[in-house]
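Limitations
The structure tokens in this dataset are predictions for the assembled complex, not deposited experimental models. Users should treat interface geometry with appropriate caution, especially where small molecules or nucleic acid strands are included. An illustrative entry is reproduced here so readers can see what is and is not provided.
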Amino acid sequence: MAVEVMTVEVAEATASGFAAIGAGLAVGLTGMGTGLAQFSIGGAAVGATAENKDMFGLALLFTVIPETIVIFGLVVALLLLF
Amino acid sequence: MISVSTSGPAHYIYASTRMRVRKSKLLPREDYMRLLNMSLPEITRFIEEMEYKAEIDDLASSFSGIDLIEIALSWNLANEYQRVLKILPGVMKTFARSYLSHWDIFNVLTILRGKSQGVKTGKIKEILIPAGTLNVATLDRLLAEDSPERIVENLSSWILYPVLEREFAAAQESGSYAEMENELYKAFYRYVLKKTTEGIKGGKPFREYLELEIDLTNIKTVIRLYKGGVREDVRTLMIPGGSFSVDELARLAGSESIEEIMEGIRKYYPSGPVADLLEERSGGGFALHEMENALTQVMLVQMDRISKRYPFSICSTMVYLKRKRYEVANLRAIARGKESGLSGEQIQGYLVM
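Predicted assembly:
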């Protein structure tokens, strides 16, 4: 059986491939986490705003707080890719 | 075909939040204290500045004084319940409607009693509270009928119709709807208890609450019977489905002393708010309405407790519906008490806060 030799080019291509997968997972999984957190906050925010229009600003603020999770994921993805 | 999903947690979160906001707008204890020191016109002005404005404005041209307050409160309760039903999605709406069907019993019996005693249609309509599953149009149709038989026939699609149909002939024969009313309430509790097992979120804790409500209603009946000196067989007056068996309740109602009744209740409630309440009233020297209000207060506190423990379930909605009902009852008691010249302290004894 022939022995396969990994060249530098192949190693670099594999590393960048894994980095791309890691970046994808970082954004994808944190996106799902954000979604899970936001659906309950969003539901409550829409409910509170429907009852009291003055709640809109505060409700929006609470709804976007979980966005930080996906931003962390995005930062990790960018660090992995560049 | 595109359809909107009305199951899943998001709907419970949305509806429960709306109910919690509405509950926070209900009158706090301090406002009741202020109302107790006001005159009738001041009370009217006070409630006009609250959620009751639309109803007061609508009715001000037709009614005045205590009638205006009473009818505006009833209309507001009915409108508010209908608004809540519009907000609730899917299975929550079905469940809330089933619980509100006790208003149907009240309305149907009011119409039957009014018609059989020859009361004018307009006068009966003033008393109705269309907060249940029978809407205003249906109630108007019932009011347009003259004979009780035709009224019952018109209710063939009502969920409690089988019980109504079964009991109606005997009620007509005896000339009293009391027995039929008891049977309808028993059927109502059976129906709601069954509904708690049909996949509603928070159904199990609400079922436990309902069992407490049945127990406390039965305890109130037992104490009323004892205080009223009724010593005959009272099995038919008791609602099955709670912790006490009907036989046990009948035995309690026939007790020789209030202490014996308290002891019988303590067997099922050895600790907790009911036991504490019995301890406070152990001497037997209490006014009946105070005891009843204290038991109602226990029910409301328990409802609050389960709605906090299960915040995104049907419990938040039910606690709001219940609290709203007692807010209206309290405002009516204050207005009626003021009209009758009772002192603030006397009226306070009738309030559930």
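Some entries come with short summary sentences. For this one: Chain A touches chain B at residues 39-40, 42-44, 46-48, 50-52 (CB under 8 Å).
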